[in-house]
Amino acid sequence: MQGQMWSYIFKRMLLMIPTLLGVLTLTFAVVQFVPGGPVEQLMLELKGKGDAAVSGAESSGGGSNYRGRQGVDAERLAEVKVLYGFDKPPVERYFMMLKRFAQFDLGESYYQHQSVWQLVISKLPVSISIGLWTFFLTYLVSIPLGIAKAVRDGSRFDAITSTMILVGYAIPGFVLGVLLLVIFGGGSFLQIFPLRGLTSDNWDELSMMGKVMDYLWHLVLPITASVLGSFAVITMLTKNSFLEEIRKQYVLTARAKGLTEKQVLWKHVFRNALLPLVTGFPAAFIGAFFTGSLLIETLFSLDGLGLLSYESVMRRDYPVVFGTLYLFTLIGLFTKLISDLCYVYIDPRIQFGAGGGS
């Protein structure tokens, strides 16, 4: 068994290499055809400064001989290309990027003059705050609710809760966030919760308990907007998983032996029904940090990884774009591997290389 496990892990890690190469190669190829790269943006910025200087020179009597009218000269353009590494052909830049990534060197931002690692680490606290609370609240509410719905399948409670969570699922998190800000953030009605950030301006002056309460106070609106849509998927998955197990033969046998419904539910059904949920924990846990937070972070002015990725794409900050893409893809692949290993560990009937462990 141990030999099979290590062989399986080794094969999966080997398969990560072509997956990573495929993602990076496709993205690199697409970027080559995207207009408005960092060189062009800096040229426009320099030209804009030149035009402003032209206006000032003309008002001072400089006239049409002013150098700013000529735009950015070829020498300056060549310097900018060397600065960003665009003096080299695409193929050479591609392999240089792969060499750096193989050494876990993610490069340095064009605009923020920091390494990509430093930027990612500096944004992590915000994303971790949103991710942890979203993950735990979603599972703490959804699993008990799903079990209750399965036990009361077809009842009024089941119908009412299904309607409520499906309505919440149908409302996009961004729309809900705007609605919450309008109603509770001082938009048009009540000014109960803050509009932006995770802390107040006087954070350093607060006591320890004051800091905790201030932090939780700032979290209410963004976390509500983040978790409401997540309840439906986990709740319905829990309910359907429990219903499937409840209808199996071993449950009928347990009841025939005289076990109470509570004993049947918690001693027999619970472990088997939670199998698909438990094996999804690693992916859901990591995914809460790196996915689905862009709109929430933008709306509530939370400076996290989602906002960093978005701004990097818009500004054509390619080292940050490729560095975060490489890092997130690698984390996703390892998370999928851990999920499969959890599946085999929880259910010994599954073998490595076959069935759910493949």
UniProtKB/TrEMBL annotation:
Alphabetical GO biological process terms: microcin transport; transmembrane transport
NCBIfam families xref list: PRK15133.1 (NF011712)
GO terms for cellular component: plasma membrane
Domain of life from the UniProt record: Bacteria
PROSITE patterns (alphabetical): ABC_TM1 (PS50928)
Domain ABC transmembrane type-1 as annotated: residue spans: 124-339
Family note: Belongs to the binding-protein-dependent transport system permease family.
InterPro entries for the chain: MetI-like, MetI-like_sf
Pfam families associated with the record: BPD_transp_1
Protein name: Microcin ABC transporter permease
Gene3D superfamilies in alphabetical order: MetI-like
Lineage per the UniProt record: Bacteria, Pseudomonadati, Pseudomonadota, Betaproteobacteria, Burkholderiales
Transmembrane segments: 126-148, 169-195, 215-238, 273-300, 320-346
Compartmental location: Cell membrane
Major localization listed first in the record, in broad terms: membrane
Keywords: Cell membrane, Membrane, Transmembrane, Transmembrane helix, Transport
UniProt key word Nucleotide-binding: no
Membrane topology category: Multi-pass membrane protein
